[in-house]
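Following up on my earlier thread - several people asked me to post the actual chain instead of describing it. Fair enough. Here it is, all 233 residues.
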Amino acid sequence: MKEEAYEVEDLNYYIVTLELHGMSLFSSQSHPYPTGFVQTQLPVIHNYPLLLAAKGQACEESYVVGYNMLKKADNPANTFDDVGIYAYPAIVERAYYKKILMSMSETEYVVYKPRTRTCVPLMVHHNMLAPGSLAKTVIISRDEISRELYLRLGVKRFGIWKATLKEASVEIKNGVVDIEFPFNVSDVKNVIEYALIMKHYAGDIAISGRASKAFVLRSGTDSLIIPIPLFIS
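Reply from S.P.:
Thanks for posting it. Predicted structure:
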């Protein structure tokens, strides 16, 4: 894909509210405790599985069903020509957690007793996002898309997220500006500095940063400042 292949006015911009229907455990962190492990959902969902879920694919952790061609891409911005949409990482704005107890962990989490040669699996407490949790993202598309989508994202159980899209106006803001919305550092330009929250093979996610030029999106009472993706001139 060629960088800067699209003009700002040729694309569609949406501010997206995600509402969780069901339970979701995705991009979790593990914390060891004497009696086992606790896994807690991060407040950010990586944009690589997110944009493919918006295209109807079922996404579990970093694995996405049927994305053999797209997995060769260096970062999500490079999939725009093939997929036709681009999603920014989602930020969880309202989190309801549900703790699931006595869930068997992965096979590597065991206590091994050499004398008896027995392995005792450790248990894991999952702090999963529960129904009613809300997240927000931004979608840029080549063509108009449905104002309502359902995304399947999750580990072990697919969390069903209802996505409500609101069309947004866009303007370019010149000069140094603070970015307070997550972004993939491999997908954007004009970023001066950033604070990372997630390391990922498809691009690290920053929770905030500063840019010398950025987009300002507005839809109703919503207003977001986001970095400019590489595929836009």
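The chain has two helices and 22 strands. That should answer part of your original question.
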